[in-house]
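Record ABC transporter ATP-binding protein, 268 aa.
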Amino acid sequence: MTDSDDGPVADGAAPAPDGAGVAEAVPAAASGADAAGDAATPIISGRDVVKEYVTGGETVRALRGIDFRVDPGEFVAIVGPSGSGKSTLLNMLGLLDVPTSGVVELEGVDVETFDDTEQTRKRKDTIGFVFQSFHLIPTLTAVENVEVPRLLDRTPKRTREVATDLLERMGLGDRLGHYPEELSGGQKQRVAIARALVNEPRLLLADEPTGNLDRDTGDQILAEFDAITDEGVAVVTVTHDDYVAQFADRVVNLIDGTVREDAEAVTG
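=>
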């Protein structure tokens, strides 16, 4: 991730002054989220979340008492400048960090009640990660890269079937045996998305997913995210690019660790 001031950032081998108003979360606007309705349990939510780090003998407050929720089938874009707390929030959503105070819940359960083993299992089974730099293993083919999150499942035949199906869905059925160096940037990102989906997560987190892509290729990746939400999977992307936010159902504007706006996206 690029927000170096936001605190610890997830490794790819796998986000205002105090008292400023915190926007209340609005009802989900995605087609999948509409079907779920306001009564649905959010995939992940937080109440009065504060995150502080001690660096150089000083306490830095990366998140300042924010509220958030992400519903099934919703596409949410978190936008804001570097140092605004985006990376910290993404780490919270991905169960890679815990709040200093406040509550984060995964499907209605306080994440701080999970022990290390359960937290790892929840990340594996519930959450998929997509990174700006792809993080593909160069010595593995496209289909082998997609299989990596399931290597410990001891179901090689089923794993190969799922990985192949995902790549075919991404339009890469003719690239199964290609190595990363033989793929374009857009193809690499689609492999990374397939890898993130191989465990059938209910939440997909994407860190600047179009940052290394041209606009046309980026459009294709954003269209993939839109299709994923139609299946009830929630997608959250962190971005500096306002263009990416146009594809989202809801935009969360994060500034100085505070939610300044949380509203339905306006598309042109």
